[in-house]
Design brief:
This protein is of the alpha/beta class. It has helices at about 5, 20, 30-40, 55-65, 70-75, 85-95, 105-125, 135-140, 155-160, 225, 240-245, 275-295, 305-315, 335-340; strands at about 10-15, 145-150, 165-170, 180-185, 190-195, 205, 215, 265-270, 295-300, 325. Strands 3-4-2-1-8-9-10 form a seven-stranded parallel beta sheet. A three-stranded antiparallel beta sheet has the order 5-7-6, with no helix packed on it. It is globular.
């Protein structure tokens, strides 16, 4: 596959994580639980004063039986548990439970809906404010680039739409076009399994690509989909994501394909944690071998405000030769670092 990117005019691959969206105002993982609670609280559940938030509370109390967990504590955002730990528990049980939709049980499907609505709501609030300059510069610089993103939000799509720049959700559809390949490795808040049996006018959905005909991109009020058993196709942040990524069709069939060429790789806000096995297994070895062979040039953009954390980030890239670091996050003059 060596040379296929060059033949299509792609010289740069961006690998994007939560740290890309954070300066825009989007919440990081540690804020998700409180946001999800607010969405669940607004959904009625017969006989429950706190609506579907009561279901969330009961699940938390079950998996953390030695802790005193209350509605007030969750809502305050001060609950001292790891969100990934909690989601890992519920996803582990889901893998062996009922198949309510997309291989998940009912509670994980509800979580996907709550997370999707929380992320979309936060994103809409962000776009009510002036768009930070670095995002406008980023969108204007994407010619000859491909994006691999682990984020669920649609910030990049919205920015590209506003700039009247085309994009596609698979690599091959960009051939002989100006479209930016946008590969969403953890799904998207506006992606759903094709709800054809419940085809309603308000759904306004289209397939994300001909290579993934079972996945549609939806418009409109996403909460309505839940009433028809449809839940956003997003990979929740548990430790073991393998069962979840399988629901995304061909997106993960050949992930090693994306870094096999003469490329500049710019990693923005993606932590490359050692315990993130499925993404690290795909990306890290390629960075090491590709940089040693001389056909990959690596740049890392992350936020670190002290030497200890800077050293921790550098350690995650041990073995990657000629790796450059920018520790001010996706802010300020970051575009100068990307271009130089």
């Amino acid at each position: 596959m060596h040379g296929i990117f060059k033949d299509r005019g792609i010289k740069r691959v961006f690998i994007i994580g939560a740290g890309f969206s954070a300066p825009f105002g989007m919440p990081l993982t540690d804020k998700i639980l409180a946001l999800v609670y607010e969405i669940a609280l607004a959904q009625p559940l017969e006989g429950e004063q706190y609506g579907q938030a009561s279901r969330l509370l009961k699940e938390l109390q079950w998996y953390f039986p030695t802790m005193e967990i209350t509605h007030e504590l969750i809502q305050s955002g001060k609950l001292q548990i790891g969100v990934e730990q909690f989601l890992s528990y519920v996803c582990a049980v889901s893998a062996f439970g009922e198949n309510f939709a997309d291989g998940d049980d009912l509670f994980v499907c509800l979580l996907r809906s709550w997370i999707g609505e929380a992320i979309y709501k936060a994103q809409c609030e962000c776009f009510l404010k002036p768009i930070p300059f670095q995002y406008l510069s980023f969108v204007q610089s994407l010619r000859g680039s491909m994006i691999l993103t682990f984020n669920w939000d649609t910030i990049i799509e919205e920015l590209l739409d506003r700039a009247e720049k085309s994009y596609v959700f698979d690599f091959h559809s960009a051939f002989q076009t100006e479209a930016v390949p946008l590969i969403k490795l953890h799904g998207s808040v506006d992606w759903f399994s094709d709800p054809h049996p419940f085809n309603r006018d308000w759904m306004c959905h289209v397939p994300i690509s001909e290579h993934n005909p079972g996945i549609v991109r939806a418009k409109g009020k996403f909460s309505q989909y839940r009433n028809y058993g449809c839940h956003p196709l997003i990979v929740v942040p548990s430790y073991d994501k393998i069962n979840r990524v399988k629901s995304l069709g061909s997106i993960w069939e050949t992930p090693w394909f994306y870094l096999q060429d003469e490329l500049e790789v710019v990693i923005i806000g993606f932590s490359m944690r050692p315990d993130d096995y499925h993404s690290r297994a795909v990306i890290y070895p390629q960075l090491v071998h590709g940089s040693r062979k001389g056909h990959l040039k690596i740049k890392v953009i992350d936020f670190a405000d002290n030497d200890d954390y800077k050293n921790e980030i550098r350690k995650r890239y041990d073995g990657v030769e000629n790796c450059s670091f920018w520790f001010e996050g996706f802010s300020g003059n970051v575009q100068d670092f990307i271009e130089n």
